[in-house]
Specification:
By secondary structure, this protein is mainly β. The protein folds into 2 domains: 263 residues, Immunoglobulin-like; 81 residues, Immunoglobulins (Immunoglobulin-like, Sandwich). Helix content is 5%, strand content 36%.
Length: 354
């Protein structure tokens, strides 16, 4: 089976409303984007990762899908860093009328919904399958936003928080879970360009009590559910937005995680990979016997592995298991070799066995 039909079949199996799969760019650990409103950190992201206005559909007001870019034009890039559980966003938008003077929900909005573990299903009480629970405010803390999260991000935010978290867990919009920065020069009712940088943390479980939260563990090639909508106000006196442009092409993406879109956490781009770069991890699988399983996590084209376990024993396997005969604090060294050279990774006393 070729890749395209495979991705299509996976989308259909998991219930995503569109037969597409977008990509989340992996930033190298030494080039994590700084949240300061300066988009230059994102220059290394290829254009193939850009998701623009042409991918959106207006699903509320019946606007023409020909996308009048003189009215609203957006570009979005999404990134991640291996070893972190954050999703980074660069949102660039040009609008002919920015609406952000009021202190309430009436504001141009970039609405982001994320379902890190693909749990699917309604995430707000208003869409709960049990209709008797939809009007009960206690559901706000029991159910709303717990398994998937909705962020109403104000674009821009002046005199109020950068986002309204639609759920019982407003703490997820604060550090260390999230952060945001803007760059713009327009005033309310004027036109202009806005740059928004932010990161969020997706959660498998995000209750009102942060002590009980379970962040989504982001891993390479993992698929997550994600979508966004642009709520475009063009009249400060109007109580309703003029456009609801969304990536899912289904209005209910705002409250039903099954209506999100598939995104894949990509490996490092080839040009950004050190080649080779040795790295490894370990797990003590049988503590009493001092049996340790080692996992090669090196990057690049590699043809040879050499492990020095620090007790005089070695291995040339890629993922060896080794039994230590005596307790101790060990210096374990992995040396890898490929067509473009060698690389060594030593870890001092990480492997300590009583």
């Amino acid at each position: 089976m070729t890749l395209a039909p495979l991705l299509l079949s996976l989308s259909l199996v998991t219930g995503f409303p569109r037969d597409v799969e977008y990509q989340v760019f992996q930033f190298p650990a030494n080039q994590i984007p700084r949240i300061d409103g300066d988009p230059s950190d994102w220059d290394l992201v290829p254009e193939s990762y850009v998701i623009g206005t042409d991918q959106l559909r207006e699903t509320v007001n019946g606007l023409d899908d020909r996308h009048d870019r003189t009215n609203l034009d957006v570009r979005v890039k999404v990134g991640w860093v291996k070893g972190q559980n954050h999703l980074y966003f660069l949102y660039e938008a040009s609008d002919n009328y920015w609406d952000f003077a009021r202190p309430d929900l009436h504001n141009d909005i970039f609405e982001v919904v994320v379902d890190g573990d693909l749990s699917g299903g309604p995430l707000i009480r208003q869409l709960h399958p049990d209709h008797s629970l939809r009007d009960k405010l206690e559901m706000h803390h029991q159910f709303h936003g717990v398994h998937a999260q909705n962020y109403h991000i104000f674009t821009p935010a002046e005199g109020k928080d950068w986002a309204m978290v639609w759920g019982g867990q407003p703490w997820i919009k604060d550090l260390p879970w999230a952060n945001a920065a803007y760059r713009y020069q327009f005033r309310p009712q004027e036109k202009g360009k806005l740059v928004l940088e932010f990161f969020i943390t997706p959660f498998d479980h995000a209750p009102a009590d942060p002590a009980r939260a379970i962040p989504t563990r982001l891993r390479e090639n993992q698929r997550i559910g994600l979508s966004w909508a642009i709520l475009d106000y063009d009249d400060e006196q109007a109580e309703k937005y003029a456009g609801f442009w969304n990536l899912s092409h289904k209005t209910t993406m705002y409250g039903d995680a099954s209506d999100l879109v598939a995104f894949r956490l990509m490996p490092l781009e080839p040009k950004l990979r050190p080649n080779p770069a040795a790295n490894w991890s370990f797990q003590v699988v049988r503590p009493r016997e001092r049996e340790v399983a080692f996992t090669d996590e090196s990057q690049g084209e590699i043809t040879r592995w050499h492990w020095d376990f620090g007790d005089g024993e070695t291995s040339t396997e890629q993922h060896p298991t080794h039994t230590y005969q005596k307790p101790g604090e060990f210096i374990v060294i992995l040396t890898v070799e490929g067509p473009r050279g060698k690389s060594r990774r030593s870890k001092v006393w990480d492997v300590t066995l009583p």
